[in-house]
Amino acid sequence: MSALLAIDQGTTSTRAIVFDEKGRKLGVHQVELPQSYPKPGWVEHDALRIRDDTFDCVRGALKDAGLKAADIAGIGITNQRETTIVWDRESGKPIHPAIVWQDRRTSDFCSQHADKSDWLSQRTGLLLDPYFSATKIAWMLDNVDGARQRAEKGELLFGTVDSWLVWNLTGGKVHITDASNACRTALLNLETQTWDEELCKFFNVPLAMLPEVMDCAADYGSTEKSLFDGEIPIRGILGDQQAATVGQACFSPGMIKSTYGTGCFMVLNTGEELVHSSNRLLTTVAYRFGGKATFALEGSIFIAGAAVQWLRDAMHLVSNAGDTEALARSIEDTEGVYLVPAFTGLGAPYWDPEARGAIIGLTRNSGIAHIVRAALESVCYQTRDLFGAMSQDAVAPTELRVDGGMVVNDFVTQSLADILQVDVIRPATVETTALGAAFAAGLQAGVYDSLESIAKLWESEARFTPKKESARADELYAATDKNLESARGDGAG
């Protein structure tokens, strides 16, 4: 058997899934990951909890699959990307809680250096925004006692979650990252595919802290024997959205996928071409195999599934996520109620860190169902923002492949088709992020001989075609612009 194990370390949960060579699930183990919010706009994780949960999930998935370490051809890791961890090289202890990608504490720095945005974009494909890792690293070095001095002496290491996991899985032997994660730090030169000294100087990040940048399929060492009763080779690493792109088999220029997890992330394959957006989308590495980078345009919505969590945990309007579909279908429309899910600012194409969430259009007749439906539809309207921007920058896609927990909800998937006015396809395996990581590991381990052989494994589970008239879709979407302005911060314009 050529079984593959994917570690999927996300913003709200950690899980491990064992797949067979056909991409079928053999075993799974998952635990929720709590977030902390010490100040408004701040979002943190316990990095040691991430490490320990990962170990437990691997053990649980192996047990669920009835397999041992020796049965696994390779581990593939996929992860929340820009989340930043700095730790002591000797002790392995983090110097501060992990600063999560959603965190906005460095927005003042970004505003003060807005004149550098074009320069940064040309080198990195990114914008000057708190979203990316570089400002988070600098914040830790400047706000933890003695950290900057220790970093300059080579005593501290930086990593995104993939680096942190590999370092711990290998017993501190390997400090690496892959190109898909490195390109989200704002420190990687996209053209050279190497750390950029001028960028490091600008953000005041010592080069010695940074991990080695490798392909998305490579030999990253093996797990410590004591962890899982045997060594397992680590062979694949992809940031979560790039992993979903591979899992959705979007290997040809013009193919597009959108993943609905905590946030929503749309990725359009542009092939070997570095396309710089005129609509504030990001240019990123889709994947890098055999030393050859394939690029993409990406648009990010910070809040997608997190809006459903908010309905459940903060507002107590639903007891579980599954309740939202029936509530949304219980009314014909929101009767003019709109929700702007800007709880941590707005991502593409607005990039407004000061925007905040809002519910607009409430009347005496508005109830729970109206708010729930508005929350689900808000994600579809923001998806159309991204879809339109990509159509202008590159190509107008004729269909959209979707994945993630949120699109298990048929109401959401149909609403996407209606608002976008294109066919929306849900794959047979919605765990495409984990599957993409497994595929990358399988490429390196020799389970697959090419991307073409992986593409043949992809299957559609359902196709949703537009049911709304295009004029009605346009009308509903147009109303969001006016409502959006009331939630905008200083970045409105």
List strands and helices in order, with pairings.
Blueprint: E1 3-9, E2 13-19, E3 25-32, E4 44-45, H1 47-65, E5 72-79, E6 85-88, E7 98-99, H2 107-112, H3 117-124, H4 133-143, H5 147-152, E8 156-159, H6 161-169, E9 176-178, H7 179-182, E10 188-189, E11 194-195, H8 197-203, E12 212-214, H9 225-228, E13 234-239, H10 240-247, E14 256-260, E15 264-271, E16 282-289, E17 292-301, H11 305-314, H12 323-329, E18 338-340, E19 358-360, H13 368-393, E20 399-403, H14 410-420, E21 423-427, H15 432-445, H16 451-455, E22 460-464, H17 470-485
Parallel strand pairs: 1-5, 5-13, 9-12, 14-20, 20-21
Antiparallel strand pairs: 1-2, 2-3, 4-7, 6-8, 10-11, 14-15, 15-17, 16-17, 18-19, 21-22
Helix pairs in contact: 1-6, 10-15, 12-13, 13-14
Task: Sum up the structure in keywords.
17 helices, Nucleotidyltransferase, domain 5, 493 residues, alpha/beta
Overall geometric form = globular
What is the straight-line distance between the termini?
A: 57 Å
Specify the oligomeric state.
single chain
**What's the CATH topology name of the domain at 3-240?**
Nucleotidyltransferase, domain 5
Decide which structural class fits the backbone. Answer: alpha/beta
Biggest β-sheet: strands ordered side by side in the sheet: 16-17-15-14-20-21-22
CATH class of the domain at 3-240: Alpha Beta
Query: Tell me about the biggest sheet?
Result: 7 strands, mixed
Uncertain segments: none
Mean pLDDT: 92
Strand content: 15-25%
Instruction: Quickly give the CATH architecture of the domain at 3-240.
Output: 2-Layer Sandwich
What is the β-strand count? 22
User: Could you name the CATH homologous superfamily of the domain at 3-240?
Assistant: ATPase, nucleotide binding domain
Q: What is the CA-based Rg, rounded?
A: 21 Å
State the helical fraction.
25-40%
What's the total helix number? 17
